[in-house]
Write a structure and sequence with these properties.
361 residues; alpha/beta; Spore Coat Polysaccharide Biosynthesis Protein SpsA, Chain A; 2 domains; 3-stranded mixed sheet; 14% strand
Length: 361
């Protein structure tokens, strides 16, 4: 089984060395691995790092580098999907680390009859410090990040609505096409929604694991949560089916906080008091649960303040996203996103026929 291992990057020169080393050490036969890098016109030396990797003889079947002019994740991933020639395409984020058996375990599970597989994807921190471990604890917590099952190692196979660092059989991409380039940060949700609608199941396997670097500063983490929330709001107008109720929990919290705050200004503060007490209980319990971790740090005492900052940032982002829907809808009305999805579908089908013909010779 030929595997195409794909990664996109924009100005990630400081993050990709570790991942490049992981790719080079994969135990799966290198003559059956095609590496596809997509550079979104980086200016910090990322492209040069890719060239250096390409020109180092690791024995891979091929190493492709594609330049993508659009600084858009969905667009860059579409470039990767139009370039890959393997039986399987595996998507890996630039801020990731993968173990030596990552490719081989994906292939093993696909050979068990699955069409889309993935595994646990816990967070890690680089250049470990006490403060970064505190932010990592917040990101790893269900309360601070997401209930998505793939964010944590699983103990048995289970089928999920979405996966991260997933492996897809070629026929899946040939049927559903590419990513929706109108979307940012929620392109995965919409892509996986179409995969499920096409009748495929997404299997999270306990023997597959990869790691994602968490944001190393509170400022970047808050900015990330705000952006995530904003795209949830915008995506509601184009694909509500790819979102869950949990995506809107921070939005509801911020709205309730605003309503109760207004009532308190008019002398009705009971609702605000109840809301703050209930939230405070959840905040305290989850902060204490983080202290059961092995790497407990003195800064963990700040978690009760960090959690509400993340929730409020996400909630405000969703409010902004919902408010911008009319303007955004006008903006994307003339986009070629649907045509690009179809273009990927056609390109993958054409490549499939070419590949079959070449292998038959």
């Amino acid at each position: 089984m030929i595997v195409s291992l794909c990664m996109i990057a924009f100005n990630e020169v400081e993050a990709i060395d570790g991942l490049f080393g992981d790719i080079a050490l994969q135990e799966y036969p290198h003559n059956k691995i095609e590496v596809v890098f997509v550079d979104s016109m980086s200016t910090d030396g990322t492209y040069e790092k890719m060239l250096e990797f390409k020109h180092t003889d690791y024995g891979f079947r091929d190493v492709k580098i594609v330049r993508a002019e659009k600084k858009n994740q969905a667009s860059s991933w579409n470039e990767a999907l139009m370039a890959f020639t393997g039986d399987v395409v595996i998507r890996v984020d630039a801020h990731a680390r993968i173990p030596r058996n990552f490719v081989s375990r994906n292939v093993y599970n696909l050979k068990q009859g699955e069409n889309v597989v993935g595994g646990g994807r816990p967070n890690i921190s680089s250049n470990v410090s006490s403060w970064k471990l505190t932010l990592l604890a917040a990101e790893d917590s269900l309360f601070g990040s997401s209930i998505a099952g793939y964010r944590r190692p699983s103990t048995e196979k289970e089928y999920m609505d979405s996966l991260f660092h997933a492996a897809y059989r070629r026929e899946v991409i040939a049927e559903v096409g590419g990513f929706n380039e109108d979307l940012g940060r929620t392109e995965d949700n919409e892509f996986h929604y179409r995969i499920r609608q096409a009748g495929y199941r997404m299997c999270c396997c306990p023997d597959i694991i990869s790691y994602q670097h968490s944001r190393n500063t509170l400022k970047h983490m808050i900015r990330q949560k705000y952006g995530n929330g904003k795209w949830i709001g915008l995506t509601l107008s184009v694909c509500p089916g790819c979102l869950s109720y949990f995506h809107f929990a921070p939005f509801l919290f911020v709205m309730m906080l605003a309503v109760c705050g207004v009532l308190a200004c008019f002398g009705h503060g009971f609702a605000l008091m109840v809301l703050l007490i209930l939230y405070g209980m959840f905040d305290f319990v989850n902060s204490v649960s983080c202290c059961t971790l092995k790497n407990i740090q003195p800064q963990f005492a700040l978690l009760p303040l960090i959690f509400p900052l993340l929730h409020v940032a996400y909630g405000i982002g969703t409010i902004v996203g919902l408010a911008e829907i009319p303007v955004w809808q006008k903006k994307i009305k003339t986009s070629d996103a649907k045509e690009r999805i179809e273009l990927v579908r056609q390109k993958v089908r054409e490549n499939t026929q070419v590949i079959w013909n070449e292998r038959a010779l």
